[in-house]
Amino acid sequence: MQQARAPRHRSERTEPSFAGAFHALGELAYGGAQVSASVIDLDSDERVLSIDDRIVLPTASVGKILLLIEVSARLSDQAAPALEVLDKTSKDLVGDSGLWRHLHAKSLPLADVATLVGATSDNLATNVLLREVGLESVRARTEQLGLLRTALLDLVRDSRGPDDAPQLSVGSTAELAWLFAALARGQVVDALTSSRVLGWLSLNTDLSMVASAFGVDPLSHRGVDHGLQLVNKTGTDAGVRSEVGILRGPRRGIAYSVSVQFSDRSIASRLRVLDALRAVGFDLLEYVH
After folding, report:
1. Per-residue confidence (pLDDT) for residue 17, from 0 to 100
2. Is the pTM of this model over 0.70?
3. Domain of 135?
4. What CATH number did the domain enclosing 278 receive?
């Protein structure tokens, strides 16, 4: 059984040290995992936590953020109407995360398809959107944003062969934290595009990693809860856990990104990673609250 976390009290002059995050991620690194983390204070733009934040690691579904940005930009340009109806096909079908493959509806408006990606990281919806806008357009938009170490590499596949990209997406936590800070400031393409992306992501139901420390309702956290407001996106694959988000509290706001690549050889290995990510979340909570 996990021991209760001892509260750490601070005076007005004492800043959080992120010692828990350093220790937890350090333990994973000593155990052979690759770890990376970056945290940006949204008020000062200071990078208050940096752990190997420029290395490139697999980020699984985190890369779907780049697809949502491209879709949102097209809506802002009116190059694609929000109510344009998209059909799911057998070629788009893929397992794992998402709801659409379990629904009878064969067609949905484009904006609803994007909502499914934001809320449940829907793999089928992701592939439908990629078929609509094209992976090359997503890559071009990523380059326009100045991201050099972060990319959506492929559509979602049940299995990856030798001719497929080895990962769905990769990224550096430095770039991902910057990207979310820019979204928070309305600077990704424009304010409307940024706001729309954050609206989709605010429905995300996966609070199993860093955000598990924040105590908000996984199914309803679009508003302010005990002074906290969260928008996040996670990525999960075999041996990969990654999360990027924005957390605002009574004292300040942050953009954060944490990625871990590890040997997923047992449930104990996986739980150690999740415990470490939760420890990072406790330090983030202390920083903003």
Report:
1. 80
2. yes
3. 19-156+163-288
4. 3.40.710.10
